[in-house]
Amino acid sequence: MAKGNFGERLRRERELREVSLDEISVATKISGRYLNALENEEWSKLPGGVFTRGFVRSIGRYLGLDEESLLGDYDLARSRMPERMAPPPFEPLPWQPPRWVPPVAGAIIFLLLVAGLVYGWMRIYVHHKTPVNAVAAVVRAPEPAVSVAPPSSSAPNSAQSSVQSSLQSSEAATPAPPTTATVAPPESAPTAKPGAATPAAAQKEPPASAGAQEPLKLTVSTSAATRVRIMADGQVKFDAQMPAGENLSFTAKTEFVVSAQDSSAVLLDLNGQAMPPIGSPGSSGTIKLSRKNLRRTSDGTSQR
Asked: Which is nearest to 273 in space by CA: 292, 247, 245, 252?
């Protein structure tokens, strides 16, 4: 279908049934500006995603149209939006060194080579230089004379006396045998009976706790500025003015209670599912969300 036929078909079906936009807004709790944006195919004024598809489904159900066929026309019209041209990729210019860098680098390399050659030549010269003056100054010291005494006749007596003195010194140096002391063997530790079990081993481990349920995750989006109050499990998580186009996320274990001054300006998403509007357009309202809302079908009703 050509672009523009979806909005024209929606307007034509509504006018054939003589239904005004205000009647559809009151019945489906969809803001009038969203209805005008759908008929004029002004996609930039719609929240998009599951919210807009929910609007199309609710309008088709109220007018008695085939919801799936109407959603198909909406997807086809939305897919033919002109894509924004991506900017050309940025190509950085190649880096070029300044003109003074090559000469300076060459001079530094030349100086390093010269310094290396000078250092190597100095090491070789010092290593191979012969210290002539030092060798000439070395004077060897004369060896001491050794005098040899002639043997005397008293050598056997002196040898015998030396043997006796060595025997006496060996006897004096021999230690007395150590006294042995009896050591009592250590007492053996009492052995545990095989049939007995310790109290700690007899106790059974407590059963593992059951897995907790998946927490509830609420996403709040605003199409216009309004004051919003959000309570999670009985505790106030947010109570302030939300500007248009802001998205906030909250988590809870059991339930959420959401209040807004302008019900049509607040869009709710619970665990990835679009929730029904809080109240009538232009009026304040309060809605209570729990796991029951996830199991129910999107019939346009809500739990107050």
From this structure: 292
- Range 5-79 has CATH code 1.10.260.40: yes
User: Same CATH fold, 216-295 and 5-79?
Assistant: no
Measure Cα distances from 2 to 36, 42, 82 in Å.
19, 15, 13
Q: How far, in whole angstroms, is CA 82 from its chain's centroid?
A: 37
Nearest to 10 by CA among 35, 30, 34, 29: 35
Where do we find the tokens 């015998």? Answer: 160
Q: Note whether 218 and 270 are within 8 A (CB).
A: yes
Q: Identify the helix (H) or strand (E) that includes residue 69.
A: helix 67-79
Joined together, the tokens standing for residue 207 give 């059963």
With beta carbons less than 8 A apart as the criterion, state whether 29 and 264 touch: yes
Q: Helix or strand or coil: residue 273? A: strand
- Cα dihedral: 279, 30, 300, 215 (round 10): -70
- Unique residue bearing structure tokens 């927490």: 215
- CATH (one of 3.30.565.10, 2.50.20.20, 2.70.50.80, 2.60.60.40) for 216-295: 2.60.60.40
> What gap in Å lies between CA 242 and CA 246, rounded to an integer?
7
Per-residue pLDDT of the chain (304 residues), as tens digits, is: 344 588 888 888 888 988 888 998 898 899 889 988 888 888 888 887 888 888 988 988 898 888 888 888 888 888 765 444 344 555 666 777 788 888 899 999 999 999 999 999 888 988 776 555 555 555 454 555 555 454 444 444 544 545 455 445 544 444 444 444 444 444 444 444 444 444 443 344 444 444 457 899 999 999 889 999 999 999 999 999 999 889 999 999 999 999 998 888 888 998 988 888 888 887 898 999 998 888 654 444 444 3
| Domain boundaries along the sequence of the chain | 5-79, 216-295
- Residue 260's DSSP bridge partners are 228, 285
